[in-house]
Amino acid sequence: MRKLTEKQIVLATHNAGKVKEMQTILAPFGIKVLSAGDLNLTEPEENGQTFIENAKIKALAAAKEANMPALGDDSGLCVHALNDRPGIYSARYNEPKKNGFMYAMEKLNEELGSASDRSAHFSCALVIAWPDGDTAEFEGKVTGTLQWPVKGTNGFGYDPMFVPDGYDLSFAELPAEVKNTISHRARALKLFTDNCL
Ligand code: ITT
What average pLDDT does the segment 74-86 reach? Predict the structure, then answer.
């Protein structure tokens, strides 16, 4: 697999929560990790049908625009009783956005109703793209249960609702160091660093 020889990359995301986690996880590797916001990059239309397709769209657009390697993250929550929805539509499920992600979490809880299966997983597709159009893909997952009421203030998005398997606390209650070791994003990033750095 192609190694990252460049000393800096850009994260092809405008989500501040993702940027924080990715910069924290990549900090020990000695590469400068810029964000799309730092470079004022445009947001491409996410018209893919899978996490990988959308991560690739974001990474390729950023790599070309910034003329440096770019890491795209497309991720979401797949709820098993809802046939893996909202999945790639996890950000859009919160529209029209009200109260941060509380709107989406309340809607999800209503959709689940009294379903006995409250299991779900987060998926993260990570694509590294070079300005010459070359790409490599990595995927990470974490399974868990959706709790109600939601709890915790760490993290972002659906974290207050998601209790990872093996823990009694949600991603928003657990310290960032724990989420950044077991999360879908941490697992995908580990594959990236193991293979490309
Ligand atoms: P970019 O496209 O700019 O990266 P986005 O927020 O629109 O930002 P996505 O299209 O990948 O990103 O949407 C993923 C959504 O899934 C995100 O907005 C969160 O609501 C949710 N999500 C992904 N990872 C999560 C995590 O670790 N914890 C909680 N929610 C997460």
Answer: 98
